[in-house]
UniProtKB/TrEMBL annotation:
Domain of life: Bacteria
Domain Glutamyl/glutaminyl-tRNA synthetase class Ib catalytic: 2-254
Similarity field: Belongs to the class-I aminoacyl-tRNA synthetase family.
Pfam families: tRNA-synt_1c
EC number(s) from the headed UniProt entry: 6.1.1.-
Designated name of the protein: tRNA glutamyl-Q(34) synthetase GluQRS
GN (gene name): gluQRS
């Protein structure tokens, strides 16, 4: 049986791009007689707001989407992130880092999918771990895991290349876990068999596949769908004025009709849908 999920972070209101992501995940599950889960990724206490999560739940109901089981709140799972980090630490794969953004900007030379690649300043150094972030020693992790492959339903088989990210942060100073660690562990805990999300997160799956290998987690399939973009090719974003679903809902728009329009890629003027393949930010 297939099980998909929609996993929004409650740090802003949902817009049409999120609606499309939720519909893709929902419909793929329903078309195959499977299950669709809603997981609220609320571990970043400084940026997450309960009222935004509540608005998201209302938005999804308004779109006519139903999920199976109770809503999963990532903030209830903190223990599992710490346990996984302990395991990676015992394997000698994590190191503490106290570098600031400015330190990294001054020393980094290369870019990866998430921005500047960490130049490895704290690797092998005796750094006080109190209040530090913890980074993955990527070269060592890749060596231990060996060659890995993963499968995207649209883009086909992929060789995992997590090294393009460098030594990523897995435990953050200000939040209990990074997106990569929390999402990978939760997809396993939730029994997700098909990870559906936008093609802007395609590269993240290289890292998630590596973490699955290191932590002996089941390996799902992926479906990185196309993104709704503006005329200039940029993704929708609240900060650039893309209307929120909550605004449309309060203005009396018909959510189910909107969902059906998105299913047929019928978009408001000026917006288009990219293919899921080969997206780079
Ligand atoms: N919380 C992430 C986001 O909103 C989820 C990404 C995912 O589906 O893995 O971007």
């Amino acid at each position: 049986m297939i099980r998909t999920r929609f996993a929004p972070s409650p740090n802003g209101l949902l817009h049409l791009g999120h609606a499309y992501a939720a519909i893709v995940a929902h419909d793929l599950a329903r078309q195959h007689g499977g299950e669709f889960l809603l997981r609220i990724e609320d571990i970043d206490a400084a940026r997450s707001r309960t009222e935004l999560a509540e608005a998201m739940i209302e938005d999804l109901r308004w779109l006519g989407l139903h999920w199976d089981g109770p809503v999963v709140w990532q903030s209830t799972r903190l223990g599992s992130y710490g346990a996984a980090a302990d395991r990676l630490r015992a394997m000698g794969l994590l190191y503490p880092c106290r570098c600031t953004r400015a330190d990294i900007a001054a020393a980094a030379t290369d870019h990866g999918p998430d921005g500047l690649i960490y130049p490895g300043t704290c690797r092998g150094r005796d750094v006080d771990p109190a209040g530090a972030a913890w980074r993955l020693d990527m070269a060592r992790a890749v060596e231990i895991a060996g060659p890995l492959v993963w499968e995207d339903e649209l883009a086909g088989p992929q060789h995992a290349t997590p090294e393009i990210f460098g030594d990523i942060v897995l435990l953050r100073k200000e939040a209990p876990a990074s997106y990569h660690l929390a999402a990978t562990l939760d997809d396993a805990a939730d029994g997700i068999t098909l990870v559906t999300r936008g093609a802007d997160l395609f590269a993240a799956s290289h890292v998630h596949r590596l973490l699955q290998a290191l932590l002996d987690l089941p390996v799902p399939r992926w479906h990185h769908h196309g993104l709704i973009v503006e005329g200039d090719g940029r993704k929708l974003a609240k900060r650039r004025g893309s209307p929120s679903l909550a605004d449309m809902r309060r203005d009396g728009a018909d959510g189910r009709a909107l969902a059906d329009a998105l299913r047929h890629a019928l978009l408001p003027a000026g917006l288009s849908l990219t293919t899921g393949i080969g997206w780079t930010t």
